[in-house]
Design a protein that fits this description.
The chain contains one helix and seven strands. By secondary structure, the chain is mainly beta.
Length: 127
């Protein structure tokens, strides 16, 4: 399951972090905030649909790596080709009370992820 699919499922179905929400899922967006909108029947008029919104804050880290390749001939460098690669990762997600509901265990220098954990410290499996 992808992170986005797991987050969607966890926030829409999870009792501790998402409140067991049911209804049509509308989207996740944001950079340091995650806003989830979903449609549910109106409490006053069940034939009508209203959009509910839940907001979470998150910590994000960006990791960069520069790769350089020297092109040589007879031990002499003829040219160097370099490129920079980066990846951005969500490292923590917090609910509206400021409680952590998602934590990543990762290497701060390389961005290598060792595991993801829920609010109880249980490992979250992500394919």
């Amino acid at each position: 399951m992808s992170f986005a699919a797991g987050l969607e499922a966890g926030l829409l179905l999870g009792r501790r972090s998402g409140g067991g929400i049911s209804g049509k899922f509308r989207g996740i967006n944001g950079s340091e905030t995650i806003t989830i909108s979903y449609d549910v029947p109106d409490e006053k008029d069940p034939k009508k649909t209203v959009t509910k919104t839940v907001e979470y804050t998150c910590d994000i880290e960006t990791f960069e790596k520069v790769l350089s390749i020297n092109i040589t001939s007879n031990g002499e460098t003829l040219s160097t080709v370099a490129d920079t690669f980066s990846k951005t990762m969500v490292t923590h997600i917090y609910n509206s009370d400021g409680d952590s509901i998602f934590d990543a265990d990762y290497d701060i220098d390389s961005g290598t992820v060792y595991g993801y954990y829920d609010s109880d410290g249980k490992n979250i499996l992500i394919d």
